[in-house]
Amino acid sequence: LKKLFRAHAKQARPVKQAAVLGAGIMGGGISYTSALRGVPVRMKDIQPTQLELGSKEALKQLARQVKAGRLTQDKANAVMASITPQLDFAGFNEVDVVIEAIVENISIKRRVLAEVEEVTNKDAVIASNTSSLRIDDMAQALRRPQNFVGMHFFNPVPVMSLVEVIKGSATSEEVVSTAVGYAVAMGKTPIVVKDCPGFLVNRILTAYVRAFMELVAEGVDYLLIDHVMEEFGWPMGPAYLEDVVGMDTGSHVSDVISAGYPERMPPLARDALRLMVEHERYGQKNGIGFYRYE
Ligand code: CAA
Ligand code: NAD
């Protein structure tokens, strides 16, 4: 890996300032992690309450670092001051990288990415944290697809080390290297993967979640499945995992994979994730999913 990083480092563009679109589960975590590692971030959302949520989460994480003796209070204050919550595109013309972390919907992403391209400089890298959508499908909306790349972080961002870097057919090598370099600067382990629905990890994870939904449709209690998977040695079972991910996101990912691999993973007749979304049980993000949260 070190060899790979060195090769990328030669052509990576410097990342001194970044912006993140979306202050939700992922955008909040990416903003915090970037700031903690020394790259200031403009954290943009369209909802003030989400900006508050993203800032509150960063404060909570920083307080934990101070308590554990890993950061001084002064340093924590400086990190917090380097996250700028905002509702507009102010300062986007000065950032080196923008990471989009909004809803997993191709038409919304296309529209918003095209807007971002209008307000950033011509060398800025635009990255999407999409879980499953093809980079080439989103790149169609852009005038500079060579600057567009996938940077797929995992949840919870501060803890999970993997980042999938996805090269679209038009993405330049320099832009791939910049994404790799920025991920390394954030303390992550990037891997460069092929541009296909679900990339590498979510092709595997979706097969697992689909098997879970099939078992539930056969009448197996999801509490039992979670319990069994924990006894098996995994940190959490699939129902709890979907609560962490967010049912809306999980359901979008499952749909993208079904559309992408219709023969191997056709739509499920009884789709537990869709049912949960229909009942507004989104998981931890709104306090109720397969489980309830205070
Ligand atoms: N945010 C920030 N830090 C967190 C955290 C969170 N949500 N949860 C735990 N941590 C930190 C703890 O504070 C602790 O840090 P320190 O060691 O610095 O004190 C450390 O992580 C370990 O914490 P715990 O011992 O309490 O937690 P754990 O043993 O449960 O491990 C975990 C935490 C590694 C996140 C574990 O729960 C895990 O592996 N979860 C599965 C997560 C997973 O599978 N994510 C993938 C989701 S799918 C996805 O992201 C892709 C997609 O496109 C949908
Ligand atoms: P989320 O619902 O927690 O947050 C999305 C945020 O985007 C919300 O705060 C929303 O207000 C904001 N938003 C919507 N439109 C916007 C716009 N035009 N400009 C700025 N902000 C806007 O969602 P999330 O779980 O953080 O997922 C975001 C992306 O990350 C999705 O593409 C998802 O597939 C991907 N992802 C999610 C996970 C996960 O486990 N949740 C893991 C990896 C990748």
From TrEMBL:
Organism's domain of life?
Bacteria
* 3-hydroxyacyl-CoA dehydrogenase NAD binding domain segment(s): 18-196
Q: Which residues form the 3-hydroxyacyl-CoA dehydrogenase C-terminal domain?
A: 198-293
Which family does the record claim for this protein? In the central section; belongs to the 3-hydroxyacyl-CoA dehydrogenase family. In the N-terminal section; belongs to the enoyl-CoA hydratase/isomerase family.
Protein name, entry field: enoyl-CoA hydratase
Recorded source organism is Noviherbaspirillum pedocola
Full protein stretch here: 299 to 592 of 717
